[in-house]
Amino acid sequence: MKPLKRYQYERYAILCNLAYPPTFNHTLYGFSKQGRHEITDRWGRTIIRILWGESKEVVVVFKGSQSLWDWLLNLALIPQKIPCGDGYSHVHWGYNYLLDQRSKHPNIQPHPSINEAIQVELAQSMDRHNQSPTHTIYQQIESVLLPLIQSGKKISLTGHSSGGAMAVLVAHRLFQHQPDSIKRIVTFGQPATGFWNFKERYPLHQRTYRICCDLDIVTFLPPIPLMFWHVGKMLWLHDGKIYEDIPTLKRLSRSILSWVLRPISYHYMNKYIRNKDFFDKH
Prior knowledge:
This protein is α/β, with parallel strands linked by helices. It has helices at about 5-15, 70-75, 95-100, 115-130, 135-150, 160-175, 195-200, 250-265, 270-275; strands at about 35-40, 45-50, 55-60, 80-85, 85-90, 155-160, 180-190, 210-215, 235-240, 240-245. Helix 3 (about 95-100) packs across helix 6 (about 160-175) and helix 4 (about 115-130) packs antiparallel against helix 5.
């Protein structure tokens, strides 16, 4: 598994942060003017942005929970069975629902620069899957990504909070039909997505990075021990260090201890030395 570079971390973190404002200038981050597609949820809110440029990488950015309804979906702990390789596995119903909901304003038109033959093949594929006048969120994602994949691009997926869970589920679905198309998955503050059988069958552990920060309680959700499991490599940012794949109980205990001792820790000399730069501005 290749380590996640600092510039890669910063790039995905910035894009996840920019997922929340209504709009931003994506060309400032290396994407072409026309290399942008937005997907909305059932209420017409943008929840996914697909960005690409001259490079071989397409970045799919998933927005996290925005409303009370979104947060309630985090509590929908009902397991849902999904195809997984040559069998089935169980995932969090709420996060899977976010991908299966019908968009209020579906847009399944591929980018105009894509080869015409690919567009025809895509349209035929969408016709085979279309069961209603509207399309699911995942069908829209796939309709945009397939032509880009066939033009030689690789897909990176990133998301914050429940958006991270969506990124994992989309990567898993996409892998079933396009196994060589996925470059990496990077999530921030992500809750666990599936049961143990999903963790066992998840095919992208070596390309998935799960970033946790200090005592981020969402990263310990859903709060049912041994029921939901995380996938990929965990990088825990804590106390000025990066810890890799530290066990959940150990991470939780260290977080709580750090929080309890925080007032005392400010008495140590290293805290005073760290703040020496303030005197240059005094």
